Amino acid sequence: MTKAILVLNAGSSSLKFSLFEYEAASDLHLMTKGQVEGIGTAPHFVAKDHHNQILADQPLPESNQSIGHSEGLHAIATLLRDQYPDLKLLGVGHRVVHGGAHYAAPLRLTPGTIGALEGLTPLAPLHQPHNLAAIRAVAEARPDLPQVACFDTAFHRSQEQINQLFGLPYNCYERGIRRYGFHGLSYEYVSSVLKQQEPEVAAGKVVIAHLGNGASMCAVQNSKSVASSMGFTALDGLMMGTRTGNLDAGVVLYLLQQEQLSVQQVEELLYKRSGLLGLSGISSDMRVLLDSHEPQAALAVDYFVHRISRELGSLAASMNGLDALVFTAGIGENSAIIRQRVCEQAQWLGIEIDPHANAANEFCISAIDSPTTVWLIPSNEELMIARHTRTQLGL
Ligand code: AMP
Known about the structure:
Elements: E1 2-10, E2 15-22, E3 29-37, E4 44-49, E5 54-59, H1 69-83, E6 87-96, E7 107-108, H2 111-118, H3 128-141, E8 147-151, H4 170-174, H5 184-197, H6 199-202, E9 205-211, E10 215-221, E11 224-228, H7 249-257, H8 263-272, H9 275-280, H10 286-291, H11 295-318, E12 324-328, H12 329-334, H13 336-344, H14 355-359, E13 373-376, H15 381-392
Helix pairs in contact: 5-15
Bound molecules: adenosine monophosphate.
């Protein structure tokens, strides 16, 4: 019998899964991963095993609007049954975007705790309902299976209050309007790898740059979050694929009052039509922009790097210094040119890059005598969730 932990990451139109084999006294091993995309429009199921061999790549049979997370889950369960007839699922770990001010650690789910997470939906209306839909779908299909919620915000609850404040009346903070920070599972994983491989570096003042389609940066000391570029929502901080990043709140008022945009139009603008896509007018995909000769593409890339430089200075200030910079996520892991440009603008922080190590995507990419070291650590949020689930289930 193969024992395993299932990890689910449910979005508005997708349901991603990873299956990890569990063996007592060894780390978890990825068996297969995949996703149902196009939920609500044209659902399509893709899955690969750990050798990257395709196990499924097909539209779901009832290709209509009624396909939701339950049907997506059914497709995943059917595949797992077919591929691994002797599989015993031990539990399911979910990525849940918001744990509010209260949840600083993963949470074993019960009807009561699911209700508490529903109460946090107003803090993340675009994501939390989908996370909870997948939790409910599993509870309905397999009430016997233990489930664990792992929060994107939890890692940041170690931050001092000063880093969670806005300059609003204090009762706003008390009402929950505070800087929560996101991408916490990525930061936690990357910090754990750094601690394992370079414990002395991990004990110091580290900034991790999670540069993907969503992008943020986090100041981490002794593997604990000190400050984050993301705030109340996943809009703040760095410019992203389609999100604005840091924006004067007065712009929102201007759009509403002077340009008469509706709240929905402003939301759409800030989340879906801004960022690399909005500035370039070409694409939200960094690869496309780097390959383009259009001046607007270059401008968008310049601004992306500029915002990272400013946040890096700000996060270094929050720790009174900087010992190491770590790159992760799609752009951070794969784009030598973006890493090089960020590092060139951070020479004043004692950063000197090794161009050969950087071009070769090595683990340490700073020059041998660089006072501040630079590292490249691929993120693995799914493994982090599976590990948390294992711990929560006492396995
Ligand atoms: P993620 O959200 O972590 O999957 O990252 C997605 C982003 O990574 C997209 O903007 C991709 O264009 C970018 N990306 C992936 N590979 C590369 C690459 N080789 N060079 C530049 N950007 C890349």
